């Protein structure tokens, strides 16, 4: 058995070994019925896996589920995926929906679609929702501005005295500024409450709704995106939610030890699978590497949050002063809120977001190269490694020849150039795996 207790079920490979194969169908059915709160005729009684994987992997779990009322649902479960999860989910959903309908079938036969994203990090950061939330009031502000413009036009027609018109314009602008201050104060109070609710919301569900009625109407049950943030369930204010039947599998993912004596067959089987995986030595390289990748990713997020928090007051003050200056200069053309929003969003997008994506991309590249080399070292064949699609086929060939072809140049500089990666980063990977290379005419000691 794994020396530190049970292996972590939230690990991509472990999760898919628990739920991603036909032999584990009963576990996934119970998991989905619980998370989605499906009961009576809506509950799932059977499902068919549409991705035919025969070995452990970290890919999505795709199934077509059949309910008690003979309805079919396309369901996709993703674990610990990264990178703009909102757009990523939309992209993946479009592909699944596109291929769920035969050429001769009518559109009404398209199954409903549900995507469940289980994330071991917080995707919805309450500290970054200020301006996005304020956007909801833009339409209302536009309508108010149109009404004010109409009133001003009428006043212009009625008044021939230029001095009187100017005085009224000044009074109107003063009234608008006073209203803006009151609205900003009200918005700030609402934002505080909204942020608090986001800290307490561990399970977010997004659907297609008509904007004014806030109802699904013609898209009822057509598509759902679920985002389950595991880290929020660990917080003191949210931990009681794990006692609910809906989240019993989330509790299992966080603390499988609590289910050792469970009398339910699904949890007994899940414990047996975890124990078996913990004793499978061929599973360790994949498990440990994925654990390291997940820890590194979470560390990056935490580091960026701390850095953002540290520089937030300074950046906020600078953006505030710049926005105030611009708003003052454009007092008769546009509102203070719009000027502030433009200058802040530009500063944010060009700084924090760009740098974070760059760091994530570089770390993923290093991880993919390291995993590929590890697979060769444990005896995986060239074609088997290519099937994982971590790197391009050409890059896999380059690494294979570097390791095994005596006629291939063993220069670290040449390899770094061919792989388009920083030489020092590549040295760090090769040194950690004890792979020899030539550096400036001298072979590395092994």
TrEMBL record:
<protein>
    <submittedName>
        <fullName>Uncharacterized protein</fullName>
    </submittedName>
</protein>
<feature type="region of interest" description="Disordered">
    <location>
        <begin position="136"/>
        <end position="186"/>
    </location>
</feature>
<dbReference type="Pfam" id="PF12784">
    <property type="entry name" value="PDDEXK_2"/>
</dbReference>
<feature type="compositionally biased region" description="Basic and acidic residues">
    <location>
        <begin position="165"/>
        <end position="186"/>
    </location>
</feature>
<feature type="compositionally biased region" description="Acidic residues">
    <location>
        <begin position="136"/>
        <end position="164"/>
    </location>
</feature>
């Amino acid at each position: 058995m794994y020396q530190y207790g049970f292996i972590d079920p939230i690990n991509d490979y472990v999760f898919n070994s628990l739920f991603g194969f036909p032999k584990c169908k009963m576990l996934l059915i119970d998991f989905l019925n619980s998370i989605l709160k499906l009961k009576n005729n809506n509950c799932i009684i059977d499902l068919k896996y549409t991705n035919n994987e025969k070995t452990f992997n970290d890919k999505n779990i795709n199934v077509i589920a059949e309910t008690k009322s003979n309805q079919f649902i396309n369901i996709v479960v993703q674990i610990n995926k990264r990178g703009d999860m909102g757009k990523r989910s939309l992209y993946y959903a479009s592909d699944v929906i596109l291929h769920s309908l035969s050429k001769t079938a009518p559109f009404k036969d398209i199954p409903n679609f549900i995507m469940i994203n289980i994330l071991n990090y917080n995707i919805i950061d309450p500290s970054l929702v200020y301006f996005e939330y304020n956007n909801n009031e833009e339409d209302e502000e536009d309508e108010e501005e149109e009404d004010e413009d109409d009133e001003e036009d009428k006043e212009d027609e009625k008044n021939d005295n230029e001095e009187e018109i100017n005085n009224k314009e000044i009074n109107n602008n003063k009234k608008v500024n006073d209203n803006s201050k009151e609205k900003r104060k009200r918005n700030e109070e609402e934002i505080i409450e909204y942020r608090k609710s986001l800290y307490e919301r561990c399970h977010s569900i997004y659907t297609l709704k008509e904007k004014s009625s806030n109802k699904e109407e013609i898209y009822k049950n057509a598509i759902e995106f679920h985002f389950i943030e595991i880290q929020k369930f660990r917080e003191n204010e949210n931990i009681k939610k794990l006692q609910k039947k809906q989240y019993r599998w989330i509790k299992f993912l966080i603390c499988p030890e609590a289910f050792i004596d469970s009398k339910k067959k699904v949890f007994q089987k899940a414990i047996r699978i975890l124990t078996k995986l913990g004793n499978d030595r061929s599973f360790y390289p994949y498990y440990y590497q994925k654990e390291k990748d997940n820890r590194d990713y979470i560390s990056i997020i935490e580091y960026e949050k701390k850095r953002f928090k540290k520089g937030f007051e300074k950046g906020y003050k600078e953006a505030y002063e710049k926005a105030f200056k611009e708003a003052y200069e454009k007092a008769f053309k546009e509102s203070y809120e719009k000027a502030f929003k433009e200058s802040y969003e530009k500063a944010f997008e060009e700084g924090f977001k760009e740098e974070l994506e760059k760091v994530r991309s570089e770390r993923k590249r290093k991880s993919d190269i390291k995993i590929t080399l590890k697979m060769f070292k444990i005896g995986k064949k060239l074609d088997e490694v290519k099937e994982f699609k971590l790197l391009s086929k050409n890059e896999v060939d380059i690494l294979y020849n570097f390791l095994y072809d005596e006629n291939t140049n063993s220069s670290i500089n040449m390899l770094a150039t061919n792989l388009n990666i920083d030489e020092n980063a590549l040295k760090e990977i090769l040194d950690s795996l004890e792979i020899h290379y030539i550096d400036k005419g001298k072979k590395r000691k092994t």
